Amino acid sequence: MRNQLDYRSETLAWNLTNGALHLVRDKVASTLPYDALVICSGATDRLMPVMGWQYAGTFSLGAAQIALKSQACSIGRQVVFMGTGPLLYLVAMQYLKAGTNIAAVLDSSRLRHQFAALPKLLARPALLRNGLGFISALRRAGVAVLSGVEPAEILGSAEDGVSGIAWRDAHGKRHELACDALAMGYHLRPETQLADLARCAFRFDAQARQWFPEVSIEGRSSVPGIYLAGDGARILGADGAENAGRLAALSLLSDLGYPIVASRVEQLRRTQMQMERFRRGLVQAFPWPHEQAARLPDEAIVCRCESISAGELRRVVCEMGAAESNRAKAFSRVGMGRCQGRYCGQAGAEVIAAASGVPIELVGRLRGQAPVK
């Protein structure tokens, strides 16, 4: 079997055209033709801008985790974790175990959201227990774990970086806390650029307020021969990605005429449906704080790559009629930077929707363009 595999490590897929994947490895470009393609592109942090998030010392939760796991170092001496979702508590717990001084964990979701989601979260009781255990361990260690928080601003300066965080509690009272680093994130977003280049259809998920590629539970996309699995299609976690990958592989084999065991597919389907129910529970328990986008000060940076402020984005909406993501991108350069809108695209769409007074789904999504990463 091994001599039938062509495994290419450290290889970047930067474009996709009909029947061909375009690659770069060691600065050498190549083209790889395919009859069928399974895209497992993973996920990136989902971020909501806050005043001052461009200061040095502000990291995404994923970047903070990479620093700890790959470089064995903390992002700061006194760290605040802010946002919502399971990754918030997982990374905070990892930093606690590493001996980092954690100033606070600030969660924008409220306890009532989490209680309401319990019936769905009980679809995977072991994961629910793990999450509750992380929160309990953080509190036992003396870490302040606060819910219902609305970030106000990251304190500091362009010269000296982060010096603190300010937030409002559920009653609107402002609080401030000193820190020298901050990790933030609001769950994850699927990395869908390759699916977009493959011309897969997308559908807006009103609960998650995200555009997801259309995919069957067996992993078939809207394009024949293109299969989607893992967090690049739906955020289901590591074991959910493995299960989705098995389903996509069996679908591919079946579509190519190879015999598969129907009972195995049905077992994987049931597991996937259980994981999907849990995913819905997470979305309900840790909602995307879209209201914060409408309240961003005009001087707050939305697109860090191009230094586009909320005020500039509102200007092109109100004065130039750019009530659609790609039109606003053309007029303001929001999403044209190195991250290609992966960090600012969804929050930018929320700013556009609030400024134009249209539903978020009518704002659309930034279209993927090569080269992607």
Structure description:
- The chain is α/β, with parallel strands linked by helices.
- 36% of the residues lie in helices and 24% in strands.
- It has a 5-stranded parallel beta sheet with strand order 6-13-7-8-9. Strands 1-2-3 form a 3-stranded antiparallel beta sheet, with no helix packed on it.
- A hairpin with a 4-residue loop joins strand 18 and strand 19.
- Helix 2 crosses helix 5 and helix 10 crosses helix 12.
- The longest helix is centred in the C-terminal third of the chain and has 24 residues.
- The two termini are 30 Å apart.
- The mean pLDDT is 94.
Tell me the Rg in angstroms. 21 Å
Sheet-strand content, in percent, reads 15-25%
- The first-to-last residue Cα distance is 30 Å
Number of strands: 19
Structural class: alpha/beta
- Dominant shape: globular
Strand count, sense and barrel status of the largest sheet are:
5 strands, parallel
Task: List the uncertain runs.
Answer: none
Order of the strands making up the biggest sheet:
6-13-7-8-9
Average pLDDT confidence is: 94
In which range does the helix fraction lie? 25-40%
Count helical runs.
13
